[in-house]
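User: Can you predict the 3D structure for this chain?
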Amino acid sequence: MYEYLEGRLVSRRPARVVLDVGGVGYDVAVPVGTDLRPSGGEGRVRVWTHQVVREDAHLLFGFASPEQRELFRLLLSVRGVGPQLALGVLSALSGGRLLEAIAAEDLAALTAVRGVGRKTAEQILLDLRDKAPRPAAAGAEAPREESSADHSTNWHDAVRALTSIGYSEKQAKDSVQRAAKAVSEEDLELLVRKALQP
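Assistant: Here is the predicted structure, written as structure tokens:
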């Protein structure tokens, strides 16, 4: 099991990064809006990882901090929640907001996440209410990074971000189109977050 990867950020999309670690490129799925900042010289970044081994693939999921990874692992401990759904929850809700929802037993906040129905939300609350840290222990969230890409790139990047967490192509395009009417396309993370709202 990899604890973390540290290397040069080769490419970045809203929900994936590629890290060059000693000449090997690692494709890592990350929550939308993950803020990876250089942790060493030469612009190297550190990604805290969780590996999922399946019969047909070895998948790497990455996080900006051990605390965010721990929330991912807590979500995986819930019956019926797999890696992609857990990633979707952390893409739609900040760590602090997720902990608040669990502490307050806020079903509405959880069911607003794409792919989380009432039964799954109830299961999350049931399984995590005694396991999850209290909201005050979550710490401050890192600021979201803004994209300076042009309109067309942002729109398509937002669509790709949604399809990477389970939306169909049509659903993703419809959601991004709706979001683009309400927020500026100049801020990719805001556009994606708006598109994730019901």
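The beta strands are 4-13, 16-21, 24-29, 44-53, 58-63. Residues 151-196 form one domain.
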